[in-house]
Amino acid sequence: ESGIPVIWTLHDCWSYTGHCAHYMFAGCRKWEEHCHHCAWKSTYPRSIMANQSYKNFEHKKLSFLSLDNLTLVPVSKWLENDLKCSFFKDNSIVQLYNGIDCQMFKPTKRAIIKQRYHIPQENKIVIGVASNWYRKGLPDFLKLRTILPDDYSIILVGLNKKDIKNLPKNIIGLQRTQNQEELIELYSAANVYFNPTWEDNFPTTNLEAMACGIPVVTYRTGGSPESIDSETGFVVDQGNVDAASKRISEICANGRERYRKTCRERIITLFEQKTRFADYMTLYKNILKQRKPQR
């Protein structure tokens, strides 16, 4: 009604589907034409009663496309490409990556973590981090544990009490860290960050790990591969834990120091928070310049 420009940053796919925040795991592409009879209505955001996916799709399309001055900002190339296949295809779409605070996330003392969790000094550490492990690859970590030798320790952060209770004894499970300093210590202590995510847009944890000087092994899922290159990690197919294990072993054999500088430099160059803020300011200014005067 006001006619002012709207800039909408998209962190998932909910805006152009009849229900789902993500559809990768389901392999569903109904949203390209029209959502209906959603088979995943019990998933987030959960619909308890009727299947409203067709009606929701209609409401979203009508409401969101009614804005004359809407600019969509997907935070990954992957999401940008899918947006161009949705009912938003004729809208203004400007892809901008998320950034992190590189002064906060940086390498710190590593020995503390091994002492705290009674990890042998000679062991390599593989770490996984998620705020919610739903479709983030917890079963894949369990399989990885059966493949890696005993001189590899696995630390998982962000688990609930039930998941921690059900872990095998040779995996260290932690609930959410109390502060960023503790998380940075965990990243810095690791040799590899493994991100076996099955649904993701552009996981910030990849950036945090690399800013702390450790390389990333991740699945070819959504925008997760976009943060790394051949000098800072590896991408493997979804569910290929054997391939991930080989890449993890390769990184550990190469040594931590080979990756420390290149990982951190990539994040500072491409994903530093202040630079990404500047991108948004440029976008705001450009949109305001193009705005038609109100009568």
Number of helices: 10
Q: What integer value in Å does the Rg equal?
A: 21 Å
Kindly, what is the distance between the CA atoms of the first and last residues, rounded to a whole number of angstroms?
13 Å
Largest sheet: 6 strands, parallel
Strand content: 5-15%
**Coarse morphology:** globular
Order of helices and strands: EHEHEHEHEHEHEHEEHHH
Biggest β-sheet: strands ordered side by side in the sheet: 6-5-4-7-8-9
Quote the average pLDDT: 93
Unreliable residue runs: none
Task: Describe it.
By secondary structure, the chain is of the alpha/beta class. It has helices at residues 53-64, 77-83, 111-116, 138-147, 161-166, 180-189, 204-211, 241-254, 257-270, 273-290; strands at residues 6-10, 70-74, 92-93, 124-129, 152-157, 171-174, 192-195, 216-219, 233-236. The strands form two sheets. The chain has a six-stranded parallel β-sheet, sandwiched between helices.
